[in-house]
Amino acid sequence: MYKEFDRTLRFEEKGETIEEVFNKMFSQIRNKLSYEIKDLIIRIEPKDIEVVEAKKVVFTERFLGLFFPRKRNLYKVKAMITVRVGVIEISQIKFEEIDDTPTLLKQFLKI
Question: pLDDT tens digit string along 40-86?
């Protein structure tokens, strides 16, 4: 009923700081896994992260094109994150069906 397995996910994110980029990646793990896996996810444990590509774009931003120049950074990261997933297989659970249709007397007394 309970099973664990490893899954590797690919992410591509960008942001103004390195922390923002990795926070976006890790916040998407559960959504991406629940889309792929139909069982009940109990535990997600990151095992490994491999940065495939990392870029830092530096550009100068100016107010009205002339005034107050400032340098801005944009980080772009592509990464492969390996996670260990613990799931409960819902298809393995056997449910007992109980027919509880109310009789005419029960329906009348309910009113």
Answer: 999 999 999 999 999 999 988 888 877 888 899 999 999 999 999 99
Q: Identify whether 72 is part of a domain.
A: yes
What range defines the domain where residue 6 resides?
2-93
In a domain, 109, yes or no: no
Residue 87, C-beta contacts closer than 8 angstroms, at least 6 positions apart: 2, 3, 4, 5, 37, 39, 40, 41, 42
Q: What residues contact 78, with CB distance under 8 A and at least 6 apart?
A: 10, 11, 12, 51, 52, 53, 54
Domain count, the chain: 1
> Would you state the structure tokens that stand for residue 28, as one six-digit string?
């998407």
**Cα 25 to Cα 54: distance, rounded to the nearest angstrom:** 14
Q: What is the dihedral of CA 33, 39, 41, 42, to 10 degrees?
A: -160
4 DSSP β-pair partners: 86
Q: Sort 52 into a burial class: Cβ within 10 Å, 0-12 / 13-18 / 19+.
A: exposed
